[in-house]
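Hey all, quick one. A colleague (J.T.) asked me to put the zinc ion job into the tracker so the inputs and the structure tokens live in one place instead of scattered across chat threads. No bug as far as I know, just bookkeeping. Sequence used:
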Amino acid sequence: RPAPTAQAASAACYVSVVVDIPARALSEPFTYAVSGDLVDGVKVGATVLVSFARRMAAGYVIACAGTPDGLAGAESLDPSSIKPVRAVLAEPAFSEQSVAVARWLSQTYVAPLSECLRLFLPPGHTPRVRRLEDGTYEVERASVQEVHQRVVALTEEGRAFVPPERAVRQRQLVEALACGPVTTSELNALYGGMSATVKALERRGVVTVEERRAWRGCDASTTLSSASGAAPAQLTAGQRRALSAIEHARGLGRGDVVVVDGVTGSGKTEVYLAAIERVLAEGKSACVLVPEISLTAQTVGRFRSRFGDAVAIFHSRLSAGERLDQWDMVHAGVARVVVGARSALFCPFRDLGLIVIDEEHEHTYKQGQSPRYHARELAAYMASLYGCPLVLGSATPSFESLARCAAGSFGGVSWTRVEMPERPAGATLPRIVIADLRREFARGSRSMFSKPLLDGLMRVVERREKAVLLHNRRGFAPFLMCRECGCVPTCDHCSTALTYHERTHTLECHTCGAVHPVRPYPAPGSACPRCGSRYLAKMGMGTQQIEDALRSLLPPDVAVIRMDADSTKAKGSHQRLLEEFDAAECAVLLGTQMIAKGLDFPEVTLVGVVMADYALKMPDFRASERAFALLEQVSGRAGRGERAGEVVIQTYLPDDPVIRAVAAHDRSLFVPADLAQRAELGYPPYVRLVNVVCRGKDRNVTERYVEALAEKIRAIASQEHRVAPAGASGLSAALAADSTERPQVLGPTTCVIERAKDRFRFHVMVKCPVGYDISRVLSRALSEVGARRDVSVSVDVDAYDL
Ligand code: ADP
Ligand code: ZN
Ligand code: ZN
């Protein structure tokens, strides 16, 4: 219950509080006074009870000062008008540095500060304030209980204790404790009721019993680990180069970035482990992000076996209690290495000495809900704040990282790329075969499997091996393609594939929409605009169709396992299907992009990509970058055992630079040209791309709203002068080929998915110079247009899925 209203005049100090009312998005802190009896508990990071807009609410303390003058925005307040803090609801959960991070998130991604601060709270600790009937207030808290356990250990004298021959229980106990302390529950599980014996020996001073906090969530992850913790006898030359670059960056203490650009299996994980070892030796902590824990169990296991109990692990399958305990382990300083998904960055680190992002190109690092942050950008900001290096590892680094490394610096720190082109044991990369579907078509084949893929499958059947077939439909939108020449109609302005709309027989650009004069392409069956062929067909077959074709093609004793969104709906089905594949003698695993990574089955000798063009022709300027990463990843699934692997990529576009680059294992065949095109057309990493999506049940209302919003953004952006780049000097100076000084507003237009969950979706895209303060323009535009109940707006800065 809150304390009675304190007299503001007798305040011991003043605080800035960000009030957290779930239904309202608040960013502005308000000033409150703290009375003498509360002053000990009110610190930065604490959750407090305050009155706000004639109700009681929870809020987070982000600053303290002896007088109002010491708080930003409170200088001119009359102390007697300042309302008091009513009570302390929770101990500090975050530090002043975390407040800086939350502010940065809020500003960069146009998200309420209250929402950004909430990310730092321990799991289950979101306080809600409830008004009771008698007019007083109570704080509800999602209750997650701490668990304690009793730990039995031998005392100094106890080590010399020899139980009498006949005292069997005592002998068992002393034996069990010889190697170290054991919990009472473990003892009971091992030997049955042991409490009487423990008590007896405790009385005699042989053992001690201590109550300790139990850390849930640790045991579950050790079962994932089959990996050994031993470091290799000698690091490769590439590993030594990477490690010394990281050490150099650590020495500078500025938050420099090291991109470890190493082919799959080149030993990147080993580099992280070695670097973290040194960070721990200095008493600091480290944070390692992995794209998806369930797919990287082996990697996680290696951290556990190398660093033991010093590792906290965060993944989506933890229960609330486990999550809380892992968080507390970091808070208490018990765990100094954190391995987890992007949200692991919000752990209560002490003295962060290194941040690692593995597979940094992965799109899972971009958060889909507000605040829509990108873990790479957040980590880069945190690295500079903490003065520790950021290590980005990948076999296919993101174009953002490649461009920044090419420029040498970004955001005031250096970006260095270290290549690791070889695998330690000299293991070979698989042979890549490109199957030209145009030629198959000309030959009269109407099958979805080309000759090379058929031959490969038959060889697998004959030798009783396994094959993986990828049918990628991620971000897929139907498009038209000429089956004779491979031509795909693309937008003149955006150079992305035009999306085919069956209902209206139109092709639309979902980037620029109305701005672009849509070319009146004919419906399927009409002539190809390039070669005049009549075989202009809609592309878009499903995994089910391919499964049927496979089953009728292969002998019945070959297991065909389909893994896609439909077949993995049930909990645990993903794992079950993989086990089925593992157990089968001869099998084909057919799946969407979810099979591209993490799979490590030595019997897989063939990887087939049914239709690489789906990835190449996504209506997205990142299509080539993503296609390359996907094809490289999936190729890495072949030939991991003794037997050599083969990869067959089916395509109508064998001359596409991405296909050529994959075939030659040479990224330079497409990256420079693609980057040059992005610079010319004004795409990231040379501009920042902001996607503003409006959703509403009423089509007209939503459309009118998005039009008004777009107009407003245009108007404000044209008034505003270019804001000085905030710490983005490197890239904008060295790379901004497109010298647009002002944001460019594209659209509005319908989204690629025009209607979802009964809501119509429209979007406006804003391209702005790197370092331009676009969030200010957007915040102003949003507040001037005003919110509508029936239209929801989401702002996605550095958008990925358009
Ligand atoms: P990546 O993370 O780049 O895919 P890993 O670190 O998983 O690569 O290493 C691939 C394999 O090579 C692992 O089995 C690892 O134990 C082994 N390895 C890594 N570094 C060395 C080394 N210096 N000497 C021998 N084996 C190594
Ligand atoms: Zn054609
Ligand atoms: Zn366009």
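Adding what we noticed when we looked at it: The longest strand covers residues 744-756. The chain has 23 helices and 32 strands.
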